[in-house]
Amino acid sequence: MDESYLKKLIKKLRTEFEARTSENLTSYADPNFVVWLQNNNAIERPKEYVSVERQKFSKALMESYLTSINQISSLLDETDTDRTFTKEEVLDIVNKAFSIAKTEGETAIKKL
Question: Which domain holds residue 105?
Answer without folding.
Answer: 54-111
